[in-house]
Amino acid sequence: MKAVRxxxxxxxxxxxxxxxxxxxxxxxxxxxxxxxxxxxxxxGGERVLHVVNARLHEIPMSWANRFLDALASPDxxxxxxxxxIFGLYTEFTNPGLVxxxxxxxxxxxLGMVALxxxxxxxxxxxxxxxxxxxxxxxxxxxxxxxxxxxxVVCFLLGGSMLFEMPELSDLRVSFWSVLVPAVTGLSLFxxxxxxxxxxxxxRPQIAGTGELLGMQGKAxxxxxxxxxxxxxxxxxxxxxxxxxxxxxxxxxxxVDGLLLRVRRARPASPGA
Length: 272
Fold this sequence. Notes:
By secondary structure, the chain is an alpha+beta fold. It contains nine helices and seven strands; from the N terminus they run αααββααααααβββββ. The longest helix has 28 residues, at 175-202. The N and C termini lie far apart (85 Å).
């Protein structure tokens, strides 16, 4: 019952011992040979199987079943989850691209569908979340790459533990051929993003009104106390702290909307 309702999977020997299955066969011919003459209780009485010389009729899977069968692979599931993280991270760091966010959301939904089909460990999923948190925290905490490295390790451990089934080797993620290349590519991309964002945080503001503070210009009209100044190739309305004659140099002390607050520029020191 747990195999149906909770996707619990066990090894073939244990399943045979517990009575979950009746027999183990290597191929179809061995299955027919072992099934020949077995008695089954069905509606209406008992039936004896005669299948050795039976005519075979294969029923192909529907497209929906083929799609779900493709999702029921740990490698596919882990790639979908990592692709979803990649897409959403790209959208969050570059708002307005739309496509990465939509594609990432679709990949995450398909990954969640795969997790409903496959038995997975919450510990592995939790490690994935911790890895994402470490990558985000690296933006705001000066750890010199320590948090980033911890995030990479969490992704590798989480991916290897997500479908950890010691007795079922086919329900494991291919560590070296799938998980390591996928996590490496994701980490390189996120590392570049973190580096670029970090540089932008440390770079002085070069656009907007913030750059006007401390900048010097020329009074076009007398400021007594308001008038017009020429600054950065533009004419601005200005309010002076003290009367300033037309033609004098002024220095911006504050920006109040579209009004500059200025004062008479201080003369440069002899050593400047």
